[in-house]
C-alpha cells in the first residue's frame, strides 16, 4: 500500500476555541477564497484544522501567509517539522535560551509566545515551536529555574522527576533534592548541612 500523499494540505492549530469563525476570518484576511482555492476544510480534535488546497502551487502561494499568522500555528504535512509546545516558561526568560536548550534535540524553525484567549495582549507562559527533531525531547526541561513541560505528537514520555522513560513521576523511586536538583538525598538534608556551618 502506498503512503498517503498530503502535499496539498496544511494543519492549522488555532489559539482560540471559537473555531470555524476564526478560521474563515483568517482565510479571508490572507485572501484565500474557499470556493476558488480549497478542496476541503476539516475540523479535527483540539482546535486543529486540516486545510486542503486544490493544487500544490496554491498551497505554496499561500503557505507564507498562513505560517506567519498570529492567531494560529501552521504546519505542513510534506515537511519533516513537528509542533512542540513548551509549558510553564517564565515570561522573562529570553526566547534564545529556550531555543538553545531545544537545540540539543532539534532544529528550531520558528516559534512564538501564546496569549490568553480573553486578553490577547497578555502572554500565558506557553510557547510553541515548529522544529525538525533529531532525537527525542524529554517531557520536562529545566528552564529559568523551573521545570517546563514539553509536549508534541508521537513523543515518548519521560518521568517528570528523573527524566527516564518507562514510568511516571508518581511511580518514580528516585530520591531527588528540590533544593540542589541532585539525586540521592532530600532537601532537608541539604538544609541541615547548611545550618550546621553557622
From TrEMBL:
Keyword set, alphabetical order: Metal-binding, Zinc, Zinc-finger
InterPro entries: ZCCHC3 (IPR042509), Znf_CCHC (IPR001878), Znf_CCHC_sf (IPR036875)
GO BP term (any one): activation of innate immune response
MF terms in GO: double-stranded DNA binding; RNA binding; zinc ion binding
Residue ranges occupied by any CCHC-type domain in the UniProt entry: 159-174
Name recorded for this polypeptide: Putative zinc finger CCHC domain-containing protein 3-like
Amino acid at each position: 500500500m502506498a503512503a498517503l500523499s498530503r502535499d496539498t494540505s496544511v494543519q492549522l492549530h488555532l489559539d482560540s476555541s471559537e473555531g470555524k469563525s476564526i478560521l474563515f476570518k483568517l482565510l479571508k484576511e490572507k485572501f484565500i477564497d474557499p470556493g476558488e482555492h480549497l478542496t476541503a476544510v476539516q475540523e479535527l480534535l483540539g482546535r486543529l484544522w486540516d486545510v486542503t488546497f486544490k493544487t500544490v502551487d496554491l498551497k505554496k502561494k499561500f503557505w507564507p501567509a498562513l505560517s506567519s499568522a498570529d492567531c494560529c500555528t501552521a504546519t505542513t504535512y510534506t515537511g519533516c517539522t513537528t509542533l512542540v509546545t513548551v509549558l510553564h516558561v517564565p515570561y522573562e526568560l529570553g526566547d534564545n535560551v529556550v531555543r538553545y536548550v531545544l537545540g540539543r534535540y532539534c532544529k528550531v524553525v520558528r516559534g512564538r509566545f501564546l496569549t490568553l484567549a480573553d486578553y490577547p495582549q497578555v502572554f500565558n507562559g506557553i510557547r510553541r515551536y515548529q522544529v525538525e527533531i533529531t532525537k527525542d525531547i524529554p517531557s520536562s526541561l529545566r528552564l529559568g529555574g523551573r521545570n517546563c513541560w514539553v509536549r508534541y505528537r508521537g513523543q515518548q514520555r519521560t518521568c517528570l522527576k528523573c527524566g527516564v522513560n518507562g514510568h511516571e513521576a508518581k511511580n518514580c523511586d528516585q530520591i531527588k533534592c528540590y533544593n540542589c536538583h541532585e539525586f540521592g538525598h532530600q532537601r532537608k538534608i541539604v538544609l541541615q548541612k547548611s545550618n550546621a556551618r553557622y
